[in-house]
Write a structure and sequence with these properties.
With about 240 residues, the protein is α/β, with parallel strands linked by helices. It has twelve helices and eight strands. The two termini are about 20 Å apart.
Protein backbone atom coordinates (compact mmCIF):
# COMPACT_ATOMS: atom_id res chain seq x y z
CA UNK A 1 0.00 0.00 0.00
CA UNK A 2 1.44 3.37 -1.07
CA UNK A 3 0.25 6.45 0.77
CA UNK A 4 0.91 10.01 -0.31
CA UNK A 5 1.35 12.36 2.65
CA UNK A 6 -0.47 15.65 2.03
CA UNK A 7 0.78 18.44 4.28
CA UNK A 8 -1.55 21.49 4.13
CA UNK A 9 0.24 24.84 3.87
CA UNK A 10 -0.75 26.24 7.27
CA UNK A 11 0.08 22.94 8.98
CA UNK A 12 3.51 22.99 7.33
CA UNK A 13 4.10 26.56 8.48
CA UNK A 14 2.63 26.43 11.98
CA UNK A 15 2.23 22.81 13.10
CA UNK A 16 4.99 20.72 11.48
CA UNK A 17 4.95 18.46 14.54
CA UNK A 18 1.53 17.15 13.44
CA UNK A 19 3.00 16.25 10.04
CA UNK A 20 5.99 14.49 11.60
CA UNK A 21 3.69 12.55 13.92
CA UNK A 22 1.51 11.49 10.97
CA UNK A 23 4.56 10.24 9.06
CA UNK A 24 5.95 8.35 12.08
CA UNK A 25 2.61 6.73 12.85
CA UNK A 26 2.07 5.57 9.27
CA UNK A 27 5.58 4.10 9.18
CA UNK A 28 4.87 2.38 12.50
CA UNK A 29 2.13 0.41 10.75
CA UNK A 30 4.40 -0.56 7.87
CA UNK A 31 2.96 1.88 5.33
CA UNK A 32 5.01 2.92 2.30
CA UNK A 33 4.79 6.71 2.66
CA UNK A 34 5.68 9.16 -0.09
CA UNK A 35 5.82 12.94 0.00
CA UNK A 36 5.47 14.76 -3.34
CA UNK A 37 7.75 17.75 -2.80
CA UNK A 38 5.99 19.96 -5.36
CA UNK A 39 2.69 19.88 -3.49
CA UNK A 40 1.13 23.23 -2.61
CA UNK A 41 -2.05 24.57 -1.03
CA UNK A 42 -5.19 22.57 -1.81
CA UNK A 43 -7.00 25.75 -2.89
CA UNK A 44 -9.49 25.94 -0.06
CA UNK A 45 -8.66 29.56 0.98
CA UNK A 46 -9.47 30.81 -2.53
CA UNK A 47 -12.77 28.96 -2.58
CA UNK A 48 -13.68 30.24 0.90
CA UNK A 49 -13.09 33.77 -0.37
CA UNK A 50 -15.47 33.23 -3.30
CA UNK A 51 -12.81 32.68 -5.97
CA UNK A 52 -13.29 28.97 -6.53
CA UNK A 53 -12.22 29.12 -10.19
CA UNK A 54 -8.89 30.64 -9.18
CA UNK A 55 -7.98 27.37 -7.47
CA UNK A 56 -8.15 25.39 -10.73
CA UNK A 57 -4.38 25.30 -11.31
CA UNK A 58 -3.55 24.02 -7.83
CA UNK A 59 -6.36 21.46 -8.05
CA UNK A 60 -5.09 20.07 -11.34
CA UNK A 61 -1.54 20.02 -9.96
CA UNK A 62 -2.70 18.21 -6.81
CA UNK A 63 -4.58 15.62 -8.84
CA UNK A 64 -1.52 14.96 -10.99
CA UNK A 65 0.98 14.79 -8.11
CA UNK A 66 -0.99 12.23 -6.11
CA UNK A 67 -2.48 10.14 -8.94
CA UNK A 68 -0.19 7.11 -8.44
CA UNK A 69 -0.83 6.65 -4.72
CA UNK A 70 -3.36 4.21 -3.28
CA UNK A 71 -4.40 6.71 -0.62
CA UNK A 72 -3.73 10.34 0.22
CA UNK A 73 -3.58 11.08 3.95
CA UNK A 74 -3.54 14.47 5.66
CA UNK A 75 -3.48 15.72 9.29
CA UNK A 76 -6.26 18.19 8.48
CA UNK A 77 -9.95 17.34 8.27
CA UNK A 78 -10.91 20.58 6.53
CA UNK A 79 -8.34 20.27 3.73
CA UNK A 80 -9.14 16.59 3.22
CA UNK A 81 -12.83 17.47 3.05
CA UNK A 82 -12.21 20.19 0.47
CA UNK A 83 -10.40 17.75 -1.83
CA UNK A 84 -12.99 15.05 -1.30
CA UNK A 85 -16.16 17.10 -1.65
CA UNK A 86 -15.32 20.07 -3.86
CA UNK A 87 -12.63 18.91 -6.27
CA UNK A 88 -15.06 16.76 -8.32
CA UNK A 89 -17.50 19.68 -8.60
CA UNK A 90 -14.82 22.11 -9.77
CA UNK A 91 -13.30 19.64 -12.25
CA UNK A 92 -16.69 18.53 -13.61
CA UNK A 93 -16.70 18.67 -17.40
CA UNK A 94 -12.90 18.82 -17.59
CA UNK A 95 -11.63 15.44 -16.45
CA UNK A 96 -12.30 12.85 -13.78
CA UNK A 97 -11.04 13.78 -10.33
CA UNK A 98 -8.73 11.02 -9.10
CA UNK A 99 -7.65 12.45 -5.75
CA UNK A 100 -11.16 12.87 -4.31
CA UNK A 101 -11.57 9.08 -4.15
CA UNK A 102 -8.26 8.59 -2.36
CA UNK A 103 -8.08 11.47 0.13
CA UNK A 104 -8.55 10.75 3.83
CA UNK A 105 -7.98 12.48 7.11
CA UNK A 106 -5.48 10.57 9.28
CA UNK A 107 -8.22 9.58 11.76
CA UNK A 108 -10.41 8.23 8.96
CA UNK A 109 -7.50 6.27 7.47
CA UNK A 110 -6.42 4.69 10.76
CA UNK A 111 -9.98 3.85 11.77
CA UNK A 112 -11.57 2.75 8.50
CA UNK A 113 -8.70 1.43 6.38
CA UNK A 114 -6.04 0.14 8.76
CA UNK A 115 -8.62 -0.62 11.47
CA UNK A 116 -5.92 -0.27 14.13
CA UNK A 117 -6.42 -2.06 17.43
CA UNK A 118 -3.41 -0.64 19.24
CA UNK A 119 -1.40 2.58 19.14
CA UNK A 120 2.07 3.38 20.50
CA UNK A 121 0.99 6.55 22.28
CA UNK A 122 1.00 7.02 26.06
CA UNK A 123 -0.66 10.22 27.21
CA UNK A 124 -1.52 10.40 30.94
CA UNK A 125 -3.64 13.54 30.68
CA UNK A 126 -7.34 14.44 30.56
CA UNK A 127 -8.36 15.64 27.08
CA UNK A 128 -11.50 17.19 25.63
CA UNK A 129 -12.32 16.09 22.07
CA UNK A 130 -13.08 18.77 19.50
CA UNK A 131 -15.34 17.64 16.66
CA UNK A 132 -14.72 20.00 13.76
CA UNK A 133 -17.51 20.92 11.36
CA UNK A 134 -15.77 19.48 8.29
CA UNK A 135 -14.87 16.31 10.14
CA UNK A 136 -18.40 15.75 11.38
CA UNK A 137 -20.48 16.75 8.39
CA UNK A 138 -18.26 16.03 5.39
CA UNK A 139 -15.95 13.22 6.49
CA UNK A 140 -18.26 11.51 9.00
CA UNK A 141 -15.59 11.27 11.67
CA UNK A 142 -18.38 11.46 14.22
CA UNK A 143 -22.17 11.60 14.23
CA UNK A 144 -23.86 14.99 14.12
CA UNK A 145 -26.44 15.92 16.75
CA UNK A 146 -28.99 17.06 14.16
CA UNK A 147 -29.19 13.60 12.58
CA UNK A 148 -31.26 10.79 14.01
CA UNK A 149 -28.47 8.20 13.92
CA UNK A 150 -26.73 6.00 16.45
CA UNK A 151 -23.92 8.11 18.01
CA UNK A 152 -20.36 7.30 16.96
CA UNK A 153 -16.98 9.00 17.14
CA UNK A 154 -13.92 7.65 15.33
CA UNK A 155 -11.64 10.11 17.13
CA UNK A 156 -12.68 8.75 20.50
CA UNK A 157 -12.44 5.16 19.25
CA UNK A 158 -8.75 5.74 18.52
CA UNK A 159 -8.03 7.76 21.65
CA UNK A 160 -9.43 4.96 23.79
CA UNK A 161 -6.46 2.86 22.64
CA UNK A 162 -4.00 5.33 24.21
CA UNK A 163 -2.51 4.28 27.54
CA UNK A 164 -3.26 6.60 30.48
CA UNK A 165 -5.60 9.02 28.73
CA UNK A 166 -8.89 10.36 30.14
CA UNK A 167 -11.39 11.42 27.47
CA UNK A 168 -14.09 14.07 27.75
CA UNK A 169 -16.45 15.86 25.38
CA UNK A 170 -17.81 19.37 25.89
CA UNK A 171 -21.43 20.40 26.11
CA UNK A 172 -22.82 21.05 22.57
CA UNK A 173 -19.99 18.87 21.31
CA UNK A 174 -20.40 19.42 17.57
CA UNK A 175 -21.04 23.16 17.59
CA UNK A 176 -18.67 25.28 15.46
CA UNK A 177 -15.65 26.88 17.16
CA UNK A 178 -16.02 29.98 15.00
CA UNK A 179 -13.01 29.66 12.72
CA UNK A 180 -14.62 28.93 9.36
CA UNK A 181 -11.66 30.09 7.27
CA UNK A 182 -12.52 33.49 5.80
CA UNK A 183 -15.39 33.82 8.28
CA UNK A 184 -12.89 34.58 11.03
CA UNK A 185 -11.48 37.41 8.88
CA UNK A 186 -14.79 38.86 7.68
CA UNK A 187 -16.62 38.51 11.02
CA UNK A 188 -13.84 38.62 13.64
CA UNK A 189 -16.02 39.63 16.59
CA UNK A 190 -18.54 36.86 16.02
CA UNK A 191 -15.79 34.37 15.32
CA UNK A 192 -13.93 35.27 18.52
CA UNK A 193 -17.06 35.03 20.66
CA UNK A 194 -17.87 31.61 19.24
CA UNK A 195 -14.31 30.53 19.99
CA UNK A 196 -14.48 31.84 23.55
CA UNK A 197 -17.73 29.97 24.20
CA UNK A 198 -16.29 26.76 22.77
CA UNK A 199 -13.09 26.99 24.81
CA UNK A 200 -15.04 27.59 28.02
CA UNK A 201 -17.04 24.42 27.38
CA UNK A 202 -13.84 22.46 26.84
CA UNK A 203 -12.37 23.88 30.05
CA UNK A 204 -15.54 22.96 31.94
CA UNK A 205 -14.84 19.28 31.29
CA UNK A 206 -11.75 19.51 33.49
CA UNK A 207 -9.48 18.68 30.57
CA UNK A 208 -5.83 19.73 30.40
CA UNK A 209 -5.77 19.57 26.60
CA UNK A 210 -8.19 20.06 23.71
CA UNK A 211 -7.52 17.63 20.87
CA UNK A 212 -8.97 16.95 17.45
CA UNK A 213 -8.07 16.16 13.84
CA UNK A 214 -8.35 19.68 12.42
CA UNK A 215 -5.35 21.94 12.97
CA UNK A 216 -7.30 24.99 11.77
CA UNK A 217 -9.83 24.74 14.59
CA UNK A 218 -7.10 24.08 17.14
CA UNK A 219 -5.17 27.07 15.79
CA UNK A 220 -8.18 29.36 16.14
CA UNK A 221 -8.96 28.32 19.70
CA UNK A 222 -5.31 28.26 20.75
CA UNK A 223 -4.90 31.85 19.56
CA UNK A 224 -7.87 33.04 21.57
CA UNK A 225 -6.83 31.05 24.64
CA UNK A 226 -3.29 32.47 24.53
CA UNK A 227 -4.48 36.05 24.06
CA UNK A 228 -7.01 35.79 26.88
CA UNK A 229 -4.79 33.64 29.14
CA UNK A 230 -7.31 30.78 29.31
CA UNK A 231 -5.97 27.73 31.20
CA UNK A 232 -5.97 24.99 28.56
CA UNK A 233 -3.58 23.58 25.95
CA UNK A 234 -4.13 22.25 22.43
CA UNK A 235 -2.68 19.25 20.63
CA UNK A 236 -3.46 17.44 17.37
CA UNK A 237 -4.91 13.97 17.91
CA UNK A 238 -2.20 12.31 15.82
CA UNK A 239 0.46 13.64 18.21
CA UNK A 240 -1.29 11.81 21.05
CA UNK A 241 -1.63 8.61 19.02
CA UNK A 242 2.06 8.77 18.05
CA UNK A 243 3.41 9.90 21.42
CA UNK A 244 6.73 8.23 22.16
CA UNK A 245 7.70 7.40 18.58
Amino acid sequence: MRVGLFVPCYVDALYPEACVATYKLLKQYGIDVGYPERQTCCGQPMANAGFQDKSMKVIESFDELFKDYDYIVAPSASCAAYVKVYYPKILKGKHECVSSRKIMDIVEFLHDVLKVKEVPGKFPHPVSVHNSCHGVRELNLSSSSECNVKPFNKIIDLLQLVDGITIHEPERKDECCGFGGMFSIEEPDVSTRMGEDKIKRHIATGAEYVTGPDSSCLMHMAGIAKKEKMPIKFIHVVQILAAGL
